[in-house]
């Protein structure tokens, strides 16, 4: 399928503007994280600490009624009684922040590997040009996210996580043999983007450092954009209208739901969030 390269380039530029803002914040955050590390002390959390943080932080949102529509976010591994949280030594927050960045790194690593594998499939590599360009651009952005999160971990005194997420990597591997059409790839990619978006949303409630919170919120915006695009593509494929996945497209032929399918919830709930310990370096 042919497409208007200039129009597509404009959309990619808009996407890159949001990406550039996130990466600029990541770079600006590094010196401040190093200061925080020295203030709190070097900490590499052990398994016991990771469990304690997860269990403690779970109860915070549950007690405050902020558990993402009930037990969903609490079940994602977030929370701690407020008094207990404030009573913890400052070093404990560093340990938690390291876990958050390590798990985020593992999700980004898996996303990069998944898009890379998808681009080798004939029906993606030689298929819809818009879908292929989206996959290439999104893979590059995830790689930048991964490197940024790894740098944040290092500045806090933690180890670099360069392995794919241990929970979802086996899911991706078991799904690969079943990828027979573009819709299969889009569904898998949307799931990973959903997990990343929900995880970063949940992480916002745990950061004690405002700059790290802003960084995560900015990256979450990029993941939300990815997810919305994939949901729109998924809807068009399911509706038997792959010809409308084009730039420019025939707006008059788009279904009425085209403008809202990418954002089914006005306020997203972190129902698929990964807990900080999930991708932490063991």
From TrEMBL:
Pfam families: Ferritin_2
Gene3D superfamilies listed in its UniProt record: 1.20.1260.10
Protein name, UniProt field: Uncharacterized protein
CDD domains for this protein: Ferritin_like
């Amino acid at each position: 399928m042919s497409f208007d390269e200039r129009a597509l380039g404009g959309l990619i530029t808009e996407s890159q503007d949001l990406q550039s803002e996130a990466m600029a914040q990541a770079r600006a955050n590094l010196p401040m994280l190093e200061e925080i590390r020295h203030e709190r002390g070097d900490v590499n959390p052990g398994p016991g600490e990771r469990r304690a943080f997860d269990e403690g932080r779970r109860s915070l949102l549950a007690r405050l009624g902020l558990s993402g529509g009930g037990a969903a976010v609490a079940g994602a591994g977030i929370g701690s009684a407020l008094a207990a949280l404030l009573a913890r030594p400052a070093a404990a927050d560093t340990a938690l922040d390291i876990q958050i960045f390590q798990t985020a790194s593992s999700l980004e690593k898996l996303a990069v590997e998944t898009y890379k594998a998808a681009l080798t499939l004939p029906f993606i590599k030689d298929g819809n040009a818009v879908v292929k360009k989206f996959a290439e651009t999104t893979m590059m952005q995830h790689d930048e996210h991964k490197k940024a999160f790894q740098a944040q971990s290092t500045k806090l005194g933690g180890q670099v996580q360069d392995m794919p997420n241990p929970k979802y990597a086996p899911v991706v591997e078991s799904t690969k043999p079943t990828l027979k059409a573009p819709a299969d790839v889009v569904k898998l990619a949307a799931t990973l983007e959903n997990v990343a978006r929900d995880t970063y949303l949940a992480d916002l409630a745990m950061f004690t450092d405002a700059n790290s919170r802003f960084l995560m919120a900015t990256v979450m915006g990029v993941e939300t954009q990815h997810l919305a695009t994939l949901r729109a593509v998924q809807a068009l494929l399911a509706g038997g209208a792959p010809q409308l996945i084009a730039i420019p497209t025939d707006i008059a032929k788009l279904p009425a739901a085209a403008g809202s399918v990418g954002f089914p919830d006005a306020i997203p709930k972190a129902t698929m969030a990964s807990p900080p310990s999930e991708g932490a370096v063991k």
